[in-house]
Structures are given as structure tokens and as C-alpha cells.
UniProtKB/TrEMBL annotation:
The keyword Ribonucleoprotein does not apply. InterPro entries: ABC_transp_permease, LivM-like. Keywords: Cell membrane, Membrane, Transmembrane, Transmembrane helix. This is Amino acid/amide ABC transporter membrane protein 2, HAAT family. Pfam families: BPD_transp_2. The chain crosses the membrane at residues 20-44, 50-83, 95-117, 123-143, 174-192, 224-248, 260-285, 305-325. It is found in: Cell membrane. It comes from Shimia gijangensis. GO terms for cellular component: plasma membrane.
């Protein structure tokens, strides 16, 4: 059994629990850096896709997982970040300026939208954000001179410190670009949660009435959370556009918003780890289903005919299973397994008993 003895208040808010956990994170980063030299180009592309989904998942996790505001419209901000990045580059702005500006502009637009939207609660907020996602599809078509309309746009190669990076031509360099963005966004996210602003997010999520009672400006906190969430999502959208190579108004449909929400639920709401676990599921599930169909066909005989809706059906069944049997998601299950071994033989099942985290005055919101 491993016990952490705390001798300083800073140990409660530092990014890692102890040196052991820090070493594990450094080992994981080392493995990620070595991945291009170990796996082939196909699986490197799949890993790259997982990292991009993780960025988008962290964007939604800020709003839904840590502030408690449901959103089914984050595909709109993926599209906004993607188109803004490409349009700025077409206007002559270098990628190193266009990319962060795409995130900032998306975040500012998100804050403006949040002012009326966040007056709603629960399912009403989810419906409003879904309507916004559907509306963006039409806006992209109507602003054809800038966005290319139905024809869409093609992502150019990007110049990063004199190195030309293209998803197809230089997959290894593109992977390192994505990994760098993931590390920066993750460290920034961790530090937000350590700051008073992050504590305010969690307070608003747990109880708006209690948060207001201790002096937190709930409306302002929600707006900032929405802005940060949209900014991170915009960065993910910019990378998603570069990764796809070509995109149009149908690329960022409302289905993407639903996938994002399901992803963080399966991964584990309220934790950064949950965004990564969920991204692994949504990134590798299509390949797993494809390989499974080939294996079944080779063993039992038969054709590998594509089954419409199979991916979403399996994903939906996984989501239902987690809601029924493990509401804390993959990360919650991992915590229970890890705690079992850390506290063995003193582990007790009731340690993870679910508790209501809302007040009676908030049940109908």
C-alpha cells in the first residue's frame, strides 16, 4: 500500500500528486515522442486523430465536465476554428499567428453567444446549442465567398519555424505539431483548474445557489467558461481541418457535437483524463469495428459488407452501458481499480458510493 504524506499546502494544488505520478506522466510523454519511430504511418495517423479529438474533448470538458453546462453545439466552434485558421492563412498571415488567433476569435465569439444562451439551464441549454450548431451549417453556405460554401476549402501546408508541415507529405512532423498543442493545452487546462477561476467553475457545477452565496458571479463565470471552452475547441477544429485536408459545411455536422458529448461521458466527466480516454474510444472504434468484421468474415465466411449505422449503434450501446453501470466513465473505473490495489486489503466498496451533488432548489433546472 502506497501512502502520500503531505507536508505542504502546495501539494494539494500542484499538477501531480507525488513524484511517482510525475514519473508516470514523463514516461507517457516519452512514449508519445517515440511513437513515430515505432508504429507505421497508418497508425500514426490514427494516433494523431485521437490527439485532435482529445483537444476538442478538453474544450467541451471545461464547459460540461467542470462547469456543468451541457452543450450539443460544439461542432459549430470546431468549424469556426477550422475556417478562421484557413481564411487567415489565405490572407497572408503565417500559421504561427493564424492558429492561436483562430482559437482567440472562436473564444470571443463563444463568450458573446454565451451571454443570452447561458440564461438557460439543463436540457434547454442543450437544445439552444444544438440549434446553433445547425445554424452554422447554413451560415457556411451563405458566406460562400469566404468559406467556399458547399464546395468547401483545401488546407494548405503550414510553415512552423521554417519547416513545411503537411499531414500527408510529412506525417511525423504533423504528429509532433499536434502533440505540442496537446501538451500546451493540457498544461494550461491544469493551471486553470488550480486557479481561483477553476475553483469557481467547479463551484458553479456543484451548486449555483451555493456558489452565488459565497460571492461568485455565476453569469460571469459561465461566460468565461464558455469562452475558454470555445477557444480550446477552436484550436482542435483548426487542427482537424489541417488533418482532413479538405472540408465543407457537412464536415462539422451536429453529429460531431453529439459524438463529443458522448466521448467525454464515456471517458469520464469532470477530469482531463476523461477527455483522453474518450478520444481513444472514438478514435479507434471505427478501426476496431473494421478489423472485427474482417475477422468474423474470415472465420465464419461471408462478405465484409458495410453495415449502415453500425459505428453509431455500437457507440450508443457503449454509452448506455456506462450510464447504467459506470457513470464515472473509463477514468472512474480506472480510479477504482487503482485505489483497490493502493489500499489493499483495506479497500471498501462503499468508498465510491454515489451522492447527490445538487440542492433541492436546483432539481428542476
Amino acid at each position: 500500500m502506497r501512502i502520500v504524506f503531505k507536508t505542504d499546502y502546495m501539494q494539494d494544488i500542484r499538477p501531480w500528486k507525488d513524484r511517482y505520478q510525475l514519473v508516470l506522466y514523463l514516461l507517457l510523454l516519452t512514449l508519445m515522442l517515440a511513437a513515430p519511430f515505432v508504429i507505421d504511418a497508418f497508425y500514426l495517423g490514427e494516433l494523431n486523430n485521437v490527439l485532435i479529438w482529445a483537444i476538442a474533448g478538453m474544450g467541451l470538458m471545461v464547459l460540461t465536465g467542470h462547469t456543468g453546462q451541457a452543450s450539443l453545439g460544439h461542432a459549430a466552434f470546431l468549424a469556426m476554428g477550422c475556417y478562421t485558421n484557413i481564411i487567415l492563412m489565405e490572407q497572408g498571415l503565417p500559421f504561427m499567428l493564424a492558429f492561436p488567433l483562430a482559437g482567440i476569435i472562436t473564444g470571443l465569439v463563444g463568450m458573446v453567444i454565451a451571454i443570452p444562451a447561458l440564461r438557460l439551464h439543463g436540457i434547454y441549454l442543450a437544445i439552444a446549442t444544438m440549434a446553433m450548431s445547425i445554424l452554422v451549417d447554413d451560415i457556411i453556405v451563405l458566406t460562400e465567398p469566404w468559406t467556399g460554401g458547399v464546395g468547401g476549402k483545401y488546407a494548405p501546408s503550414v510553415n512552423v519555424f521554417g519547416i513545411m508541415i503537411d499531414r500527408w507529405g510529412t506525417p511525423r512532423e504533423f504528429y509532433y505539431l499536434t502533440l505540442g498543442v496537446v501538451v500546451v493545452v493540457t498544461l494550461g487546462y491544469i493551471n486553470i483548474l488550480r486557479a481561483p477561476l477553476g475553483r469557481s467553475f467547479i463551484a458553479v457545477r456543484d451548486s449555483e445557489v451555493s456558489a452565488q452565496a459565497i460571492g461568485i458571479d455565476v453569469a460571469r463565470t459561465k461566460a468565461i467558461s464558455f469562452g475558454i471552452s470555445c477557444a480550446i475547441t477552436g484550436l482542435g477544429g483548426a487542427l482537424m481541418g489541417l488533418f482532413a485536408g479538405a472540408f465543407n459545411n457537412e464536415t462539422f455536422s451536429v453529429i460531431i457535437s453529439i459524438e463529443l458529448l458522448m466521448m467525454i461521458v464515456i471517458g469520464g466527466l469532470g477530469s482531463i483524463h476523461g477527455a483522453f480516454f474518450g478520444a481513444i474510444v472514438i478514435g479507434f472504434l471505427p478501426q476496431f469495428l473494421s478489423l472485427s468484421k474482417e475477422w468474423v468474415g474470415s472465420v465464419f465466411g461471408g462478405s465484409n459488407v458495410a453495415i449502415p449505422g453500425l459505428e453509431f449503434g455500437v457507440f450508443g450501446m457503449i454509452l448506455i452501458a456506462f450510464i447504467l453501470f459506470e457513470p464515472m466513465g473509463l477514468y472512474g473505473r480506472w480510479l477504482k481499480v487503482r485505489t483497490f490495489f493502493e489500499l489493499f486489503p483495506f479497500y471498501r466498496k462503499d468508498m465510491f458510493k454515489r451522492q447527490k451533488s445538487y440542492l433541492k432548489t436546483e432539481r428542476l433546472r
